[in-house]
Structures
1.
Amino acid sequence: MNTARLRDQVAASDPGLLRLAAGLRTVGAIALTLAVLGLLGVSIPHLVAGAIAAMVATFAIREKQRGPQAVTLALGLPVALASLSLGALLNSRVLAGDLFFVVLIFCAVYSRRFGDRGTALGLIGFQVYFVSLFVGATVSGLPELYGVLGVAFLCSAVARFLLVPETPVGLLERLREAFRARLAQLVSAQLQLLDAGPDEIDEALKDVREGTARLHETALMIQGRLEKGTSDAAAARLVQRRIADAEIAAERLGLLLLTARSAERADTLTLHLPGAPAPRAGRMPGRDEAMARVRRDLEALRLLVLRPVAARSGTALSQIRNRLLGYREEENLPAAPPAVQDVFRGVGEAARAVLGLRIALDGPQDESDDSPATARSREELDAEDAVIDAGEEDGGSQEELTGLRRPTTRAAVQVAVGSSLAIVGGEFLSSQRWYWAVLTCWIVFINTASTGEILVKGYRRLVGTVLGVLAGIVLAGVVGQHTWTAFALVLVLVFAMFYTAPLSYTLMSFFVTAALGLLYTLLHTYSLSVLVLRVEETALGAACGVIAAAFVLPVRTDRRTNDLLVTVLERLEEVTEAAVDQLSGGTPVELLDQARDLDQALADLRAATQPLTHPITPMRARRDTARYVVALLETCAYHARSLAATAELLPTHPSIAADPRLRRAGRRIGDNIAAIAAHVADERSTARVETGPSIASLLETETPGTPRFGRVTDRVLRHVQRLDETLVGLARPLDVPVAAPRR
């Protein structure tokens, strides 16, 4: 049991084991290269060159399929050989070498427009040229260095395809296990929220927020790899649907638990806004006895998520599954206050989502112990599976940016200018180590798109470098001249660098600098002054990058976030209108793909707002506003996903049927989203957000005998109502005028 728990924790902390695999693959390539070169008796500078080349050849490859990976790696070797040769030829020609380096940097960044392969080849070309400067490559030493590069690339291939192989199918399977583990962790956090006292609820709610965000992150990772990792499009759509169902059910369960703890209905925003006040516990008749049963059922749900029901009949897990699914039937709900009964309903829906997830991922399940409620749930899932179709990809074209408007061209010009400044400034600091400033300038532009992002990344790089210098001083003193001990520590630091890279850029920079301190020791060039110079060159390179980003074809953070915000609103409008139209009796469309596009657009916006929400940001009010807006959009996305998931149930669930009256509500929501988007795109827009009667009142009918809500479920109304309210709330921080309610 302890081993299984540890495996679940590792899977949840590192979805798909991506970080672990990247670290092991890179360390394996370096270790194998060092072993081969050590047996060949090459010099220490060439060992260092081989280690760095193996590292570059491994982490530069980004394709998901093994075939394209092999092609890129094969093309990378001649690129590396050419870059190394030019580095050695131009080493003694300062002006020509500097000019070529700037051209190489421009081409390396510009090549990103050609996709993963262009990015990889550009990265290899730049890094190998840097290696030639680092080890002082000469023309006479080129033949041996050619052999070193050949060994490094061969060992990289062995590590990638034999030692630590990665297939789309295997990776997707690990991501699925990570989703299960994170779903179980979220249920555990919700259980702690249920038990939290007045002094503990804020921390418990924070854990629920983090668990919800991590579950959504894993869902996005799975959706991004479904096409390559599943046997056919229908299977991919089925998994996508079940992942979305489980995510929505888990988030809804958290909301219901918050409501059960308080005297008022919890706001969805509470689960998305850090620092939002937690609802305080109220007293309800019979609360303690009912909550004890909720606690038991949450523990049972967590067990059901992690452990499949055994094939033999009469197992405890099958009985647990039957009990939880029974809560989907009104007659099986325990006697409790309405808010607590909603929690039992939420547990039942979550259990159904887990059952659907098991069927989609593991195949048919044993049905011998099914209760009537479980059998009905299976029938619903089977009916849904029958109507799932592969669908067609949207072939719509997007506007093609040209010239300096293209992001890759603009970034290439910016990096070239920044690198030129770094070369000039670096030469003043040191004629031997000037390339460190250029390396930092290059790195701060990778995966950044605005001046603010570059500023934050440069700051993190500098902090990590300063701390790494201190660590390098200690490690260099411990290692002394023990060559293989130093290389062993370098391998440990390289693994730590790749394992922490997605989590913290500061930590990654720390491990890189500490490793470089050991490499300097091996090259007999280590001194305190060299490490101090490393800090100075890093600060200079970061400053040059920021200057270039701010004054050469600048992309202001406000402009980028506004563009991405408009994209999010457009995707939100598409999903909402399509879902409401389908719930109103319109033609079915591909809602899951639209919801995925919305999630991806929101993830891009969340990343772009990091400069605004970073702790070093001096403008506190602006930081709080950015967080609030993103939280509101996440709330909107949750309700839109829920509407989309409900709309897709129409063909199979008799309890949910189209109601044409929903169109009136959908029209107001669509108009409000369009008004907000228009105002963000152009502050001179005169569009206003309309408010008015509640969504439920819009569905009133004057025809006698007509049911008030038709067959539209109460859950649909709640999602539409909350979405309408959240959009009005979103208008205020964005300074969009809100029209007075019509009388």
2.
Amino acid sequence: MAGGFGELLRQLRRAAGMTQQHLAERSGVSVRSISGLEAGQRTNPRLDTVCELADALGLEPDQRRGLLAAAGGDTTMAADPGPPVQLPVRSAMFVGRRDELTALDRTFRTAGPGGTVVVSAIGGGGGFGKTWLAVRWAHDNAARFPDGQLFVDLRGYSPTGRPMPPEEAVRGFLDALGVPPAAIPIGLPAQTALYREVMAGRRMLVVLDNARDTDQVLPLLPGGDTHAVIVTSRDRLAGLITGHGATALPLDALDDTDAWQLVARRLGPDRLLAEPDAVTELLARCAGLPLALAVTAARAALQPDVPLAELAGELRDRGARLGALDTGDPAASVRAALSWTHDALTPDQAEVFALLGLAPGPDISLSAAACVANLSDEQAGEVLRALERVSLIQRYAPGRYRMHDLVKLFAADQARRDLPAPVQEAALRRLVDFYLHTAFTGGRLLDPHRQPIELGVPASGCHPHPLPDRAAALEWFGAEHPNLLATQRLAAERHWHRQAWQLAWGFNDFLWQQGHSRDFLAAWSAALASADHLADPVARSLAHRGLGRVHSLLGQHDEGLNHLRRALAVAQQANDPHGQGHAHRYLAWVCDRQGNYQQSLRHESAALELFRTLDLPAWQGDVLNMMGWSAALSGDHDQAREHCEAALDLLQRHHFPLGVVATLDSLGYIARHTGHHADALDYYQRAHSLCRDLGHTNFEAEILDGLAHAHLALGNHEQARLVWRQALLMFQAQHRATDADRVSRRLATLHARNR
């Protein structure tokens, strides 16, 4: 059929008004070669020769495709083979993703037909439904691309571990576009050039699914400005975004509503409504991962007589959960999907990934990750960026990373499988000491006057996070306090009892000052359980003291007194005057809350004497304020004022701002109850301002209560209502039911009075 090519070349040359000599001059192909081609004396012309002739003739796209097809020996392909339609069937399990579909619409609408969007599951990786989303959008918008849709699974992350070479993908596209095999040149550059030549002038959608990286994608991007490309990948494809204007579209987990709908698609709503508690647990265990939800639904569908509660029970065990999310088919297995990404990691990356799976808590900072991996921050940052690039972790805030729950389970499994037990233990000891020693520094910054404890030497390779001041400590505790609680639980589980109780000491002041009463209770309960394993009376006394404080704060005064009396007894047996003084302080505090002011004064007097003996003037000032408060509650306002003014002088001179706040609050109470309401308002406002600067929400709620009283006494009813509303919200957030009920009654009375 070479004669067909020669005849077509002659026709096109004459239509262009050229002689063979003219065409030779423009194309660089010799006259002899052109003459031989037209006469049919030369068969199977080289593709680059045909392209040079087509360029010189200035052919339109259809003419060019016809000439290329004829050169391949198939003259029937000179006609348009019809638009390729390669999209796979859309998934019946696709639900939700309304925001993402809208974002895709917006991207192609604003970027024009040549826009490129990257659908990248930065927060998850395998199993997040990237392909489902791309195929759904492609089907919904197929009419916008009348010249067809190309689709290829690039196998970037697959069971074989071997990504599809770009040459294979290009050849597949050229076949779909009607280019005869004989016309496809050797070598990726020539194949890519032909692909873009054939695509020129068409309006097509190209879906590049499951790409390994940017290098695999670039040869498959069509030229011109009439095409749209969707790329899905576990890699972030940063080069495509920065170098080719792609728009990143990360996928996150499904919300509960969409997760419910996905399972209902397979099982029907009636079965789900029949076992709502089991369904809630199933959805929680799958954590919004579409693949996990689909696997769970498939298992339930295959076992219609098995209650959903039984399946939920299988998922409840963290150690067996990944096994339960497996149908036996690698395409329907969460573990398999994650393993394909894991297999692409280097050994160093795989080790850090596994160690991150062991780290307790919902997220991790760069410093903590460096510590668990025994790397510098710079080295750890490089590895974390590599893990983020393939969507095994997500950087959701500056310097902070998290894993999807199921990814973390997989990572922990890898650690137990691949890392020797001593390596795992050393990593966790470094991490526990990282949190402990950083929390110790932070605790001292929040309250430099508190009873000190002595820490051991941190584990080798542990570098605590530097905290230069109180503001930095508050910020660090705010970010890390869930991790601190989780780390304390881990320390207790591994019988690292000294670290477990000392962690409670480290973040004690943060939990107390911020009003995290339930976390405070959990921390000191765990601390006492660990302290009971140690021959350390200071640890037991501190733990009982912490529990006494929080039980009393929650209105459980009998329980609080029991712990505080035990704290005092242990401190006395250990000849610990510092611990005795603080036990007396908190016993007095509880007695005040119970209305037993005389007993409170006895405890305060004992504490004052102990702190004088120890030469601790700041704590003397604190106890003098407590004595003033007890006197005020008993009605002796003159004595109360004398104690509080002496306390304020000591506390200011010895830089104890929390004590100053408490004393200003006491003086406000005294002024209010002696009819000096303007003075009361001033004291409360000063206390509130300083308290807010310190970030002490526990005190703040109580000060607001007094401030509202002062406003009410001065006739500022609306201001009093607003302040009490603020105090109520704080008491409720701190689970202080007794205080919240008291403020609610005052608001109700104020409302009734103003009706």
3.
Amino acid sequence: MKTELVIDLEAEKQEILKRYRALLRASKSTLQKGDKKEIRKAFDMALESHKDMRRKSGEPYIYHPIAVAQIAAEEIGLGTTSIVCALLHDVVEDTTITLEDIEREFGKKTAKIIDGLTKISGVFDTNSSLQAENFRKMLLTLADDVRVILIKLADRLHNMRTMDFMPRHKQLKIASETIYLYAPLAHRLGLYAIKSELEDLSMKYLEPDTYKFIAKKLNEKKAERALFIKKFVEPIDEIVHEQGLVADVYGRPKSIHSIWNKMKKKNIPFEEVYDLFAIRIILDSPPENEKADCWKAYSIVTDLYRPNPDRLRDWVSSPKGNGYESLHTTVMGPRGQWVEVQIRTQRMNEIAEKGFAAHWKYKESSNDNGLDQWIQKVREMLNNPEANALDFLDDFKMNLFSDEIFIFTPKGALIQLPLGATALDFAFEIHTDVGATCIGAKVNHKLVPISYKLQNGDQVEIITSSKQTPKEDWLNVVVTAKAKSKIKSSLKEEKRKIAEEGKEILERKLKSLKITYNTDNLNKISYFFKLPSTQELFVNVALGKIELKDIKEYLSSEKEIEHRSPERPENLSVDGIKSKMKGSESDILLIGEDMQRIDYTLAACCNPIPGDDVFGFITVSDGIKIHRTNCPNAAQLMANYGYRVVKAKWNKQKELTFLTGLKIVGIDDVGLINNITKVISGDFKVNMRSITVDTNEGIFEGSIMIFVNDTEHLENLIKNLLKVRGVTGVTRFDA
């Protein structure tokens, strides 16, 4: 038995060396004198410190850092420092090696990046989210060195590729965090290939059935698609070469996640999604001819196939904020179906695939880099003293995915803002003081309120007044993180001033009632008035919401109340909630690792019903709430509060019914509603809670809220409703 193990270890040793050599080959293009030695030193340190560790799959742990370094080198195009950091990214967290050791061996820069990649340890306030804090720490390093994020993305990509051996709840948590934060980050850094793969892999774990369904459908039509692409591309290829352009023309399948998004957005079945692939034309052009050649190719394509005039996207003249440059058009193919064509040069393509890293390579030629501006914005957000990491995360997240619009100042300067930005966002973008005193704006010389949503190409002039100050409801008007953080800090400053006044007033009042002014008493008073902090208490006193008579009331009740400090959600664990609650007998949901029956409530945001893939979320005040894993809020909850998520699964039981909604679309016909209600109430004996119907020029749209037993019951009902004459579509919707 023993010899077998030795052979095994020998084989593993060979495999490790093989992988290490592959890594060296991948990084060959960037290696300079002495680099190989550095990489070897890092590899030896990682090998030694992880030697007794294994991954969940049973493989040696060192496979992971090597793979991460390989992704960094090959797929992102990073150099030696990054490869060294990728090899060592887990040693400080998981082994006895310290940051000082790394700094001594590899220098300050490497140590700083690895510190950015190392999770925060230590005790946290129970309300804060460890994930959010770690993310903020990583971004603090990003402001100095973008490589920290790129290595983190490589690390996340490898973890997502090798997640099969993880327990289901861990898969859900990691996949949610990926779709919520890391895929948008890859998008923002221009790493489209990695972004698409992260989205697809997240979907594989979060919505396995849909993922398998689309993958199977794509596979079935593969040959047919290849033939179509071949026929479509041939004439383009021919004319492009005739015109003396050097180009590579090919078809590229769309990612499963983007196809699913299209199905959801347009509410259509797979069969009706036309752009399952895009045609790419990659030109080999010298920098001075790039623009002209792209338009030349565009004119060739649109001579052959008729373009859709609304679908021209020109990111060659004004690149996206993440540096993406390309010309997109949608044309009518020979079989009467729309085909998306993307035209770009090799330089543009490399930037689209490798994002940031490719940018540095071409930095001399690219004017005014959008990515530098973005990092500048991240720095501004991090300078904001906003204490709450979760708020920061939400603001940051919001600015990751939004498309840009271009706005002109009165003098014609161009400013980029996210889609949906308002006149007030524009004011803060120009200067904090302009934002804080903004009372309105002139858009294209017309007067508009501060909440006016800007359109691409608007010219905006801001009107200010020295009497204006930021208001609480401004937070609902703005969408950029910069504006939000500036408004929040002004409001905080304002609140601090009010609280100072309140503090003095309260001190005088307590003195007159002979109550000692100390922290203990302030906490008791805050608790009595159900206020979250003493600052809120001071503010309420200053605003006159708490008066002397109220404090007297507190005094009389204090005689009965035992000393208690403000309550904190100490028991944020399943066991804590289990001890408070007894599972009712008719319970049909099993919760936690040991699958016990515990009381729960169903989340109103997604109305889960038995049969749905669900998870439990421990709330601060309402016990356990059950959400569907594809609930609109699920990704955010799992990404920010993974430690509060518990496993949950349904147990067969028929007596209970659950509320869910159905949207019915069809062609209006005499007796259509009657036939629909007959199927629901008559054939299925299902109770309806409400029904709203709208018919518009012969098209019927109805929403019905009904009570069903489980998903199987619901699916059968949908099948039968689709058989009703005139009904063309039935879909379930979240509340």
4.
Amino acid sequence: MTMSEQGPDEPGPDPLADAVTQLTAELAALRRDVARRHLLDLACGVLVARHSLGPGEAMDHLGRLAETMNVGPEDIAADIVNGATGPSGAAGGPAPEGSTGPLTAYGAASAEAGEERAEGRRARFAEAAADAAAQTGGTVDEIAATLLNGGMRPLGARALWLFRRTETDCLRLAGQAGANPLEAAHWRWVPPAAGSALHRVLNDGTPLWLPDGTSAAEALPGPAPGSARAVLPLRQRGVVTGLALVDWPGPVALDESVRRSLTGLAVPAARILDAGAPGTPDPGVLAPLLDLLTHPAMALRADPESGTLHIEHLNRPALDSARHVHGPAGRPLAQVFPAMHDDLVRLARTARESAAPQRVARVPVVHRSGDPDPLHDVRVLPVGPDRTVVFWHGATNPELSLSRVLGRLENLAAFEDDLITGRSRWSEQAYRIFGLEPGGSPVPLRRLAPHLHREDTGKLNELLMELTQRREGTDTVVRAVREDGGLRHLRIAAEPLLTGGVLTGITGVYQDVSAQHHTEIALSATFDRLTAAQTQAALRHQLVLQLQQAIVPEVPELQRLPGLQVAARYRPAAEEYRVGGDWYDVLPLPDGRVLVVTGDIAGHGIDSVTGMVALRNALRGLAFTGHTPGRLMAWLNEVTLQTHGHPTATAVCGLYDPSDRSLCWASAGHLPPVLLREGAADLLEPPRSILLGAVPAASYRETVTRLEPGDTLMLYTDGLVESRRSGIDEGLHRLRRAVERLAPAGLDEQADALLAAVTGDTDDDTSLVVVRVS
């Protein structure tokens, strides 16, 4: 089905709002049930007391009476309670079953005083409903509305005011129903003025009936001076704790039945007067101010102990947003706006702590399909230590959205010049770009030259010429000089506005590109430095490689020495910057012996290479002294300690004597050599000695290994066996197996095969020396 066939998408059901509506309806039903039960319990209590019935018998008797009189049980219960408490129309309660006299009298009384009984019933219903609202956590305003709607509106009353008496005899408005917020804000406090009507009733404890209103000199709550009023004292335990004031739209004859009904309703009013939290601040003048706004607004107050946000007031558009909740004012914010609660709590807390307004485009920030409608363009304003005001729109405001988009695009600001009226308009960001006070007079584009660098006025003139003479859109970049002395690089992009071929205006944007300009300069300088650094690094690495290759050739030729064949291989690191300090040496000595060495300087780079050169050359010179490998290593340790950079190194130094085919060797923390004999490979465990350059005056033990014709000895560095995924022992095990799998071949072929079969994964360089006994 296409969109034209289906029509626009209808908004889906709001499950959260439906749940709140359902809970509100359940609460109202609960209150009605509590009120009904309260009235029935009172009536049953009267029957139990008067006729010695049990509770069950009294409830059954009440049901039979209602069925006999063809009225509801609540009506009979109200009449019984009224008869017990004294209102006219019920001289006594009905008799139990089997006693016809009192029941007949009850019926006669009902016939004679039906209207009075109806008034009494209404009063009892209102009293029970008020008690039910108090029991289920209703606010004083809600309970006052229950009393007004259930018992006073049938008498023509307009509003009910409940005042609480303070310790200083001030009267504080605890709750009201029927009056508008502006009236309520005006009568929040009534000081103890001498002779005021309210304080006369407070002191005398006598009701005041004003059927024709008050004089112009004495003001009381109400719509007009001539409107009827009734002021009733509210007593608790014999003490006047407050006042109830009822007003009418105009003059009313307050006859005896009206006075009796109001006096009866004052009793529950006194009981529920303390249901509200005493001392709770009111929104004061905020309420009437918010009511003047055409967009939704509400006042929130944080509980001083728990921090829970409660709604103090909502204006009419905000009430439309909360229409799914009955009586939202006074409720916790989570009950009225559950989907927006978390975001509004965060914004309100930030606004109070920073004492600064908070703005967001939408609440909740993340809105999913099927969620309640979000609040758009939300602004949260702190108005005290515990109170905030929230403003929002019901739909996205295009102008505000466009302003946010422009502000998001690297300080983009809109402007428009009307050439007919001479007026100009700037968006808020334009004032910040030029460093001017917001709300000042915008500067037309044609008069912008004084705000620009003097060298850039020519660019502005060219821009104006394109717009006014050629009437084409264009852009340019200039430097704006701010009043605080700052300099901004500014892109101006503008279009001419034509009406009937006549140029009537110019519109466009200012874009602060200072950050981009500075970034380009910094990137250019950084690029130059990087280029120079790369050139230096390339030269440095080239020198290192040349130096290392000159000392350790990658593919040396097979050497034939006294009683030995020697092949050596060097595999450089995978990356140039990891050029290391591996070295090897095979040197025949004057006494007929052959020096065989492998070593590894810790680290990489030119320092390692220069350290390697120093140790290799030092060992070559020391070998001609004729001393044993242990003594040579001890001297080499001292050389290492005195070498620049204080390197450390591992090494294996051996002297092969062809006369008896013996290899005397010492190790400085190096990996064990591998001996291949008749197809079996073994690791020659070296004597335990410390590495070179660690401590001074170190000694190195020697060991002698007897070789046989055909034996192959392999010396290597750690790049051959080290792995990031396994330990060194596993690498040595792999090397031993690979040596055993080598096919019988020439020494060069076996060296190449071993390098191909075994490799570490640390990208380190590797040295390998293979020696075969002739």
